């Protein structure tokens, strides 16, 4: 038996720092109203921004897809797992994002590893926003390239770092919409810096795809061409209510990834039936623009209400509306109190966010009703008032 002491110690430490993670167990489908650990709750934690994750038409697409194409793809893409729905999905995603070509993956984590690690390696340099998603940071670290992080949204810091860069290949990487803050990259500025320094630029539009831009093409898609943003990645597991992910770009670049990305070559293709779900979701994205409008309306209602109550929301204009609480124990306490009042709002703590910036990550969807939002605002205001009363006493 190997030594278990380090495991016991790490687990004890996690608990002591109020960093223990326990997934809430759902006994319902995804939605604004869920059943969690035996009770009904209003859900403010999912990334199902358009309310598609349990749409009956997507369910039907999955069933029909499985009947036609089976439940397993049986092999990696290059062997014999690449079926018609995968091919069609790649073409449709390229169209949506205004790119020549796209390559699909079974998760966004894998797509990011593939994009970064295939483009850059030992001898190269990768520059990342400090608050980038873990999958991008991991990819940069694992690539073997020289790894530099610039201060969040600080393009002059990035510019300064680039001026000191060496002669190797350079890759700039950023979330388009930051997953724990909800704020947005200055894509035009990043594109200028990439152009000036002859660097590659990769944007991850996980939280913009489906929600922002013309026809839900994302923050980047149709607004910035592949001459500005050379690599675009996004997951299909958030606004699209499906699963999987993709990298989009010029045909030449995608051909290169298809030949050399180990994360594409050495893994079983996702089931074609899941690609059928994504295809249907793309149909709905085009046919039902009202969903994006409903989300915007909810966002305006929520921010207006929070402002009136003096709640410390971060300055986000997207569906991700974090309420900064700072201390881990405080964030947990608020999350727990909300749970008891029937709201699922997860506390986000380090290492997902920097130390001292624990928060409630409130996510809004197109399917929330104004009364759901008003109830949450009321509960938050009550918690703030209770805390104030306690601190006066103490
Ligand atoms: C969720 C997320 C991913 C990972 O996508 P999955 O398909 O869930 O693996 C990557 N990047 C960002 C910014 C994300 O928020």
Topology of this structure?
Blueprint: H1 5-16, E1 33-36, E2 39-43, H2 56-69, H3 77-81, H4 84-96, E3 101-105, H5 108-119, E4 125-129, H6 134-143, E5 146-150, H7 155-163, E6 170-175, H8 187-197, E7 200-204, E8 231-235, E9 245-249, H9 251-260, H10 262-265, H11 272-287, H12 290-309, E10 320-326, H13 328-340, E11 343-344, E12 347-348, E13 358-363, H14 370-393
Parallel strand pairs: 2-11, 4-5, 4-6, 6-7, 7-8
Antiparallel strand pairs: 1-2, 3-9, 8-9, 10-13, 12-13
Please explain how this structure is put together.
- With 394 residues, the chain is α/β, with parallel strands linked by helices.
- The protein folds into 2 domains: 23-54 and 289-393, Aspartate Aminotransferase, domain 1 (Alpha-Beta Complex); 56-287, 3-Layer(aba) Sandwich (Aspartate Aminotransferase, domain 2), CATH 3.40.640.
- It has 14 helices and 13 strands.
- It has helices at residues 5-16, 56-69, 77-81, 84-96, 108-119, 134-143, 155-163, 187-197, 251-260, 262-265, 272-287, 290-309, 328-340, 370-393, and strands at residues 33-36, 39-43, 101-105, 125-129, 146-150, 170-175, 200-204, 231-235, 245-249, 320-326, 343-344, 347-348, 358-363.
- A 7-stranded mixed β-sheet has the order 3-9-8-7-6-4-5, sandwiched between helices. The chain has a 3-stranded mixed β-sheet with strand order 1-2-11.
- Helix 5 (108-119) packs parallel to helix 6.
- The chain is globular.
- The N and C termini lie far apart (51 Å).
């Amino acid at each position: 038996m190997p030594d278990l002491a380090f495991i016991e110690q790490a687990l004890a430490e996690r608990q002591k720092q109020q960093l223990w993670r326990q997934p809430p167990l759902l006994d319902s489908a995804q939605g604004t109203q869920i059943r969690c650990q035996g009770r009904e709750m209003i859900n403010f934690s999912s990334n199902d921004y358009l309310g598609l994750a349990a749409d009956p038409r997507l369910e039907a697409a999955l069933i029909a897809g499985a009947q036609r194409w089976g439940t397993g793809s049986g092999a990696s893409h290059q062997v014999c797992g690449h079926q018609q729905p995968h091919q069609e999905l790649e073409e449709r995603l390229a169209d949506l994002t205004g790119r020549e070509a796209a390559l699909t993956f079974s998760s966004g984590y894998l797509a990011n590893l593939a994009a970064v690690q295939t483009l850059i390696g030992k001898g190269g340099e990768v520059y990342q926003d400090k608050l980038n998603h873990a999958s991008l940071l991991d990819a940069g670290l694992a690539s073997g390239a020289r790894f530099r992080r610039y201060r969040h949204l600080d393009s002059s810091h990035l510019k300064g770092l680039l001026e000191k860069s060496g002669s190797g290949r350079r890759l700039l990487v950023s979330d388009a919409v930051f997953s724990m803050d909800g704020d947005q990259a200055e894509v035009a500025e990043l594109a200028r810096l990439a152009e000036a320094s002859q660097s590659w630029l990769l944007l991850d539009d996980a939280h913009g795809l489906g929600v922002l831009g013309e026809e839900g093409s994302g923050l980047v898609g149709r607004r910035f061409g592949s001459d500005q943003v050379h690599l675009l990645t996004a997951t299909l597991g958030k606004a699209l209510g499906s699963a999987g992910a993709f990298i989009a770009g010029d045909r030449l670049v995608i051909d290169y990834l298809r030949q050399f990305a180990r994360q594409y070559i050495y893994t079983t293709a996702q089931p074609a039936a899941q690609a059928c779900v994504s295809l249907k979701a793309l149909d709905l994205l085009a046919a039902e623009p009202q969903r994006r409008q409903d989300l915007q309306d909810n966002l305006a209602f929520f921010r207006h209400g929070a402002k009136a109550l003096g709640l410390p929301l971060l300055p986000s204009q997207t569906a991700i509306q974090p309420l900064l609480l700072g201390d881990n124990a405080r964030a947990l306490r608020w999350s727990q109190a909300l749970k008891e009042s029937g709201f699922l709002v997860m506390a986000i703590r380090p290492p997902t966010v920097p130390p001292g910036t624990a928060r409630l990550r409130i996510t809004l969807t197109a399917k929330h009703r104004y009364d759901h939002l008003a109830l949450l605002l009321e509960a938050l205001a009550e918690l703030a008032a209770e805390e104030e009363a306690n601190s006066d006493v103490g």
